[in-house]
Amino acid sequence: MKIAFMQKFITQGLFFSLTYLFSTGLLYGQEKGKNITYVAKAGNIFISEREFVQRFELLPGFGRQRRSQLETAKAEFLYTMIAEKLLAQEAIARNYDKDTIVVQSLIAIRKKLSRDELYRNEISQKVKISDIDIIRGMARAQSLPLVSYLYFAKEEEAVFIRQQMKKSKDFDALKIDSTFHVLRDTATVIWGDADPALEDAVYRLTSGEISPVIKAGSGFYIVKVNEIRRNTEFSSLQPNVLRDRTVDIIRLRKERQRFNEFMGEIFKDKIGYSLPRTFIHLAKCLREVFYERGKENDGLFSSQIMNEVEQRCKSFLNDSMTIVGNSAWTVGNVIDKLRNKYIQIDLKDSANIPNLLNDQMRELVQQELLEQESLRRGLDQQPAVREKMEMWREAILASFMKGIIRQKISASESEIYAFMKDSEHNVEVPMVQVRQLVTSTLDDMKKAMASIQKGVTFEDAIHRWSIDTLTRNQGGKTEYFPITMHPPVGDLAWRMNIGQVYGPVSVDNGYLLFEVLDKTKQPPLNDTAFASQFESAKNKLLNLKYKRTLNLFLAQTGEDRGFTIFEDRLKSISVTPIPMMTFRILGFGGKMFEVPFVDPQLDWLNVDPPKTKILP
User: What pTM was computed for the model?
Assistant: First the structure.
């Protein structure tokens, strides 16, 4: 069985490009042709007022209705943006802009934004709304026809029945033979909600008039208008609001019509299909995992479901599954694309999963072909796309730089136990006992170690060379001490085997060579409760160390690269005083944040830059 998509492209529903605002507000920016104004400079990157406003509006801050809090929020947000730009420049300096993860992330965003631009070029900008369209629409919106209708699946039956109706009363009086497949019912036609062909025919009728046969959707209709009432919802609107609502509805319909025309044109010579073998294997795994999870499943293609599917498909993750234009996707690629595309279905509908998978694959293939076409046309080089790409590039580089810093952070067991002891006083910290030899100079240590290599016992070497009077008379033995003490000996000894020797280690009063004599039993890490506490403490400690390191790194970078805020411009910027978020419904499907989200980053401003480099 070949799973092909090409015949089904035209029937797909409309996906339209809009910017949704959770609250009303005007996005501030410079008009085309005017000079761009800036609000700050971080290193060699200027931050424009336009970018500041676009990204500030995205952040769901609270308390903006108070002027003082709004100004504080603006300043804090700007410092956060400065931190992002500084991190982005550090990433570029280390050539992380060439890293595969960064490159692939930028390619994915470029393709989405280019596809969105293709929608504007081929759909939105080609839709024209005339004054006549608006006047007619406003008039129709204010009337509410109540109709009776006959629905037929076959056109010839509808035509025959219509020929029998000579007068208005024939619509209700005519007896229709049971051999005809017809449905008789009533409806209220609301302008903007009905099928355009059906709606247009109805609004041309007067009360009591019968329509000709109307083709709409998948069937044929004969309609009689019983009564025309006033639509209070539209009639009560102010003229300017009614006009705007009318324009929106007309545009949506015309975009839908243009969309269907374009989809029919664009896919004529395009290739997009799935290979039957791998498609069936993936559908089978998906169905099995979904069924096995039973009532615990949280939606088809959810992260949990797809993680299990990925494990089950491990043996053929690299097998080709889908051919789409000039690209080929493996099973693993497809799983990644489907991950988190949440679809809620009942367990009893699991047999329908192959069809749902096919629907999702059709949409993904369509979008990929449209993205390839948009890139072929060079739409990624359009000024609007390039402006957004620069914002996304810097945000992705900053995020990658944070990831690099996080990778550098580690926590030893002794640090974790010390952290636990500070926060939980009843934690039992492991203990160690060592035999140690301490010398005042490195030369003395070398002589002591040379004598041990020649056969002198560790204890005799300690009596001869050690300057530690507290342990020398005990053969170098220490008392048991917590692994959180005497760094780095406590932590090193805990990780070594009994009998192992380590050194020399530089210590405050000289050089140290030690042997592990004993270790207390480790707390029961196999105990679920303790293991959970230990892991939680580890994660908290790592997060604290990461934040501290990041703040030090930013403070150091800010001092090295410099940053400036143009306070007069910041104060003059007009922003929405209420919490809001902005995201884009992309042309031809999918959605993304209009601009990159900004994580608050302020603590670095209160940190003194260290003299030594945080990262090489």
Answer: 0.76
